[in-house]
């Protein structure tokens, strides 16, 4: 596969929020040209609107997407993966790279259905990708050629930052960055509620809470300081911040977050095992 921009064709099976974000990102950054993007979605009206707006090809079905693409992004719900993979299986060739963006879908799960027809990359993006500030992890159990890996990473960088990990860490990724936006949103909501309790108007409290999280994250990135250092910078001796920190510790704030991440990881593992078990059950019944 050529490495240069616009030198491969990109397909999307599913045109929901995440697929939409990737399409807009790669087109805006010139990674591929609109006429090199092909997509299908069961919501034909949505697909046609997207085609008219972005200038992409609206395919008639999933098979047409594969036949007209080099890299195919599976952007459908996990419970439809088996049906979609069986539908496109005989269209896949060695030249194809199949990218999964669904939680709990392992490379082995996909390979059980399609065999060794093409290379498979598993990814885990998160919702900030919708505004170009995402965190995406990727793994593959195939040896992608250097130019193929660069092409995949270029696509994912259109969503934000990219980290390559081994597949045995993907459930941990799901628990931290995949589900993390929910934890952060809950913290912002709680912080704003605290502001309202203290007398701030709700709209002001939300703006202050949101900007505080954005600013702290930016400070961590640019200063390269440990989060504990940032906490210490704000916590004066016998001051207001350390009093608040004492209460957070007393109420198990950090422990609650750690336990939540662990519970999420265990749930992701259970979902993955259940899906793989169902595949083997289905194969034995054929």
Word description of this protein:
The longest helix is centred in the last third of the chain and has 33 residues, at 253-285. 55% of the residues lie in helices and 12% in strands. It has an 8-stranded mixed beta sheet, with helices on both faces. The chain starts with 9 loop residues before the first strand and ends with a helix. It is of the alpha/beta class and 286 residues long.
Give the biggest beta sheet.
8 strands, mixed
Helicity range: 55-70%
Oligomer: single chain
Number of strands: 8
The helix-and-strand class reads: alpha/beta
Query: Residue ranges: pLDDT <50 for 5 or more in a row?
Result: 280-286
User: Strand percentage, roughly?
Assistant: 5-15%
Query: Rg, please?
Result: 22 Å
Strand order of the largest sheet: 3-2-1-4-5-6-7-8
Q: How many H/I helices?
A: 12
- Which shape, going by the Cα principal axes? elongated
Please trace the helix and strand order, writing H or E for each element: EHEHEHEHEHEEHEHHHHHH
- Measured between the Cα atoms of the first and last residue, the distance is 36 Å
Average pLDDT figure:
91
